[in-house]
Design brief:
By secondary structure, the chain is an alpha/beta fold. About 50% of the residues lie in helices and about 15% in strands. The strands form four sheets. The chain has a seven-stranded parallel beta sheet, sandwiched between helices. It has a seven-stranded parallel beta sheet with strand order 16-17-15-18-19-14-20, with helices on both faces.
Length: about 725
């Protein structure tokens, strides 16, 4: 029987004069925070599922940390706290948890932060890379730098490294689950992952991110079970912060994909040749055999065939994706066309992959016991499994009609990193560079409906799951998110929910402006209107503007139209795509007279308090654009079931993203500014009211654009 949390004791910590409140500068009690805290305490005490929308400034971190830490200590149970980003992970672990812990008297709470394997170095892989140098001197210099760092680091985490590391270099030495030798590894005593897992096994609070959480949950769901350690120790109490993102996080772990670049990378680890030099695992494997040279030649022939097949398949797939960039296989697909242009390449690739993997399996399964545990054998087997997974995907795509509960599509992508092109070229001297190499195809399979998977893997198997976010509800209704996430439909489980409004003074501090003469997005004059309005609004604000778009084409048009005029006013214009996201954001935050023109990834997760951001422009209501294969497939499924896909999916999804964009403006109680919406549908369509009702009450200006410019100037100055 669990020890119940003392409601009054925990609540008192955040009341005026309380143990936590005393340690927070300029603390003011927030009723919304206390109400949220009460709900979460009840969730732990009653083994419940909780959905909570907490507006900006409520203080949700302390509202879930206090009960989580008290519960973990009182019941000697682990509580896993998952965040959407590594940045929030670090904040919880380095600042918030120590502060709360210091207010709990003599009770010692042990916490640990865990990131995905790829964030940590693998000493065995580093040793292998140093033993078998790269074909490029610059890569070898980086490896030597990493090796020096590896002798001094305490955690092995990439975040500790102060020098720049190319992705290709880190990929060759980072930890990977299916390349781990476990107890057979010569470096197991110094292994950073094993050390971290031992710490986690003895911890009360484990702070993870959604990426790592779903890596663990997906493995458990797919057969690893819930009673033993997988990636995380076994747990049954879970807090999910920024819970509105869990569907996207889960999608990547319950999906599968393959493509030319991944196949060639795996083949390169098995065998590659440049001039007279041969390298790879197969050389070392065949060295264990009496007739290794003959078998190596046979496998090298198959490797060359697979490379050729992968290249031919890729060329065909890129061509099929044409200008749209995406081809989804669905009941409406032209099967005779696919039989001519796609399936023969998939079948040939599958056949050659399986011929190679059969040869390798014959070798590895017939080695004597002493050689079978060699690291070379283990790593070779893991690559065989990856190649066989690609072969299985080839078969699934050829039999797409039998997979009606999955979404299958091909997407054309571009290689942005020249080092990736070089790395792919380096694995084989006969692999010719060509103009089309800048494009490649990815074949992806993802579940049509994630809700049943999430219901089983997240909610049914845990005693308490607390889901919090600033955006879970649409007009105070959780139905949409609850349906998408799978939290509903569980028998005999108490489901608690609540909306906790922001304490920030939106009524006086924010002006919501939307021109009633704005064209509809499908009208020919719409883009010209956006170009004009965005420029004039940013000019009046003197910069400090985040201008959000739903398409890169629209962004580019507005940026090109505005940059000269804004630059002449001393306003720096930044455009997504011109630099790395983190550097672009840092440039924006460090220059109060700058404007950032941005799309999808900047609608959330940006914290720009004070005068850094005084104007947010939402150029278009964020409905998903046609062409997203997952979105389109789910729309079709809703329609097939006799429901309205616009009302069931498109509209609530757009409202939740709109709330995220709106929420970029006010990050502190002293902030103020303007949110301008340039989409005529806000006034001319009946559903526009749903967007307006889903954000806090503000001052409003719904006039023509010229009068809005005057109102905005009066409001700001």
């Amino acid at each position: 029987m669990n020890s119940k949390l003392d409601h009054e004791l925990i609540i008192s910590a955040l009341c005026e004069g309380g143990s936590v409140a005393r340690k927070l500068p300029s603390y003011e009690p927030r009723q919304a925070q206390l109400d949220l805290l009460s709900l979460i305490i009840k969730g732990f005490n009653e083994d419940s599922l909780v959905m909570a929308e907490a507006g900006t400034g409520v203080g949700k971190s302390f509202a879930y940390l206090l009960p989580a830490m008290h519960f973990a200590l009182s019941n000697n149970e682990k509580v896993v706290i998952s965040t959407a980003t590594i940045t929030l992970q670090q904040q919880l672990y380095e600042k918030d948890i120590p502060l709360v812990s210091s207010c709990m008297g003599d009770k010692k709470i042990k916490s640990v932060i865990m990131k995905g394997r790829g964030n940590y170095i693998c000493l065995r892989r580093l040793d292998d890379s140093l033993r078998e140098p790269s074909l490029f001197d610059s890569d070898n210099k980086k490896l030597n730098q990493i090796a020096k760092w590896a002798h001094t680091t305490k955690t092995g985490a990439r975040s500790e490294i102060v020098f720049k590391i190319p992705e290709a270099a880190w990929a060759s030495v980072c930890s990977e689950s299916d390349l781990c030798l476990g107890n057979h590894c010569l470096f197991r005593e110094q292994c950073f992952i094993l050390t971290l897992r031992k710490e986690a096994n003895n911890a009360h609070i484990i702070v993870v991110n959604h990426h790592l959480l779903f890596a663990d949950l997906a493995a458990r769901y797919q057969g690893a079970g819930y009673e033993s350690a997988v990636i995380l120790p076994p747990f049954s109490r879970l807090v999910i912060d920024e819970a509105h993102t869990i569907e996207n996080a889960a999608t990547s772990f319950f999906s599968s994909e393959f493509g030319r670049t991944g196949i060639i990378r795996q083949l390169g680890r098995l065998y590659h040749k440049r001039r007279a030099n041969r390298h790879g695992l197969l050389l070392r494997l065949c060295a264990m055999l009496p007739s290794g040279d003959e078998q190596l030649d046979s496998m090298a022939d198959y490797i060359q065939k697979i490379r050729t097949c992968a290249e031919e398949l890729d060329e065909s797939a890129v061509r099929l994706c044409s200008q749209e960039g995406i081809l989804r296989l669905c009941p409406a697909s032209d099967e005779s066309f696919l039989n001519r242009e796609l399936f023969p390449y998939l079948k040939t690739l599958r056949k050659n992959i399986l011929s190679l993997t059969d040869l390798i399996r014959d070798i590895t399964e017939n080695l004597d016991e002493g050689k079978a545990t060699d690291p070379v054998v283990w790593e070779t087997k893991s690559i065989v499994r990856r190649l066989e997974s690609a072969a299985q995907m080839c078969d699934i795509f050829c039999k797409y009609k039998k997979h009606e509960n999955e979404i299958l599509w091909i997407e054309k992508k571009r290689l942005k990193d020249s080092t990736a092109v070089r790395a792919n070229d380096a694995v084989n001297e006969h692999y010719n560079m060509r103009n089309e190499l800048s494009s490649f195809a990815i074949f992806t399979k993802t579940p049509l409906d994630l809700a049943p998977i999430l219901r089983e893997s997240v909610f049914s198997c845990n005693k308490t799951v607390i889901c919090v976010s600033a955006t879970l509800a649409v007009n105070d209704d959780f139905s949409f998110w609850a349906g998408q996430s799978g939290i509903t439909g569980l028998n005999n489980r108490l489901l608690l929910s609540g909306c906790f409004p922001s304490p920030f003074p939106y009524k006086n501090a924010v002006l919501l402006a939307s021109p009633n003469d704005a064209p509809l997005p499908d009208e020919i004059e719409y883009q010209d209107f956006v170009n004009f309005a965005a420029c004039r609004l940013a000019a009046i604000a003197g910069g400090s503007a985040l201008i959000l778009f739903t398409s890169y084409q629209s962004l580019t048009s507005a940026y090109n139209s505005a940059k000269d005029e804004l630059s002449s006013l001393g306003i720096r214009c930044l455009k997504q795509g011109d630099d790395d996201r983190s550097r672009l954001l840092q440039s924006f935050l460090s220059d109060k007279s700058s404007c950032l023109f941005a799309t999808d990834s900047f609608w959330e997760g940006i914290d720009a308090p004070g005068d850094t951001l005084r104007l947010v422009i939402i150029c278009r209501l964020p409905f998903r654009t046609p062409g997203d294969p997952v979105f389109e497939a789910r729309r079709e499924a809703i329609q097939k079931n006799g429901k309205n896909p616009f009302l069931e999916l498109s509209l609530p999804q757009a409202v939740m993203k709109f709330k995220q964009g709106f929420g970029r403006l006010m990050r502190r109680s002293a902030d103020s500014g303007v949110v301008a919406v340039l989409d005529g549908r806000l006034h001319k369509k009946s559903y526009g009211q749903l967007f307006l009702h889903s954000v806090p009450e503000t001052k409003c200006s719904f006039k023509n654009i010229n009068n809005i410019l005057l109102d905005m100037e009066n409001f700001l100055y």
